[in-house]
Amino acid sequence: MRLNRLRTVALALIFAAFFIMYLGVFSAAILPFALVIGTIMILVSVFIYFRVGAMSMKIPTLECPNCHRMTKVMGMEDGCMYCNTPIRIEMDDEENLFAVQNGEVPVKKTARR
């Protein structure tokens, strides 16, 4: 769920950058500043997308206890990417990860980390 929010922020930065650069077209005095600010915003957005992609490859995939779809959970507590159900990650004695919803019994163990 947090990864989707980061992607949304990066997309909003790109649209805001285009809007700022477009405003620079109407005034020659602010054009250089608008282009520099817009370019910096786009570079920050590219950096966010790069970091999210790198983080996404290392995040464990678990089955959601509510919708039973495979979802990536970032941190010890997060939400399902599909149904936004709050999910908490716990480990058993063999250090296998499993998802717990509202303190209930775990649904499914996964071997993938």
UniProtKB/TrEMBL annotation:
InterPro entries, A to Z: UPF0295 (IPR020912)
Name assigned to this protein: Uncharacterized protein
Transmembrane segment boundaries: 7-24, 30-50
Pfam families named in the record: DUF2614
Highest taxon listed in the record's lineage: Bacteria
Keywords, in A-Z order: Cell membrane, Membrane, Transmembrane, Transmembrane helix
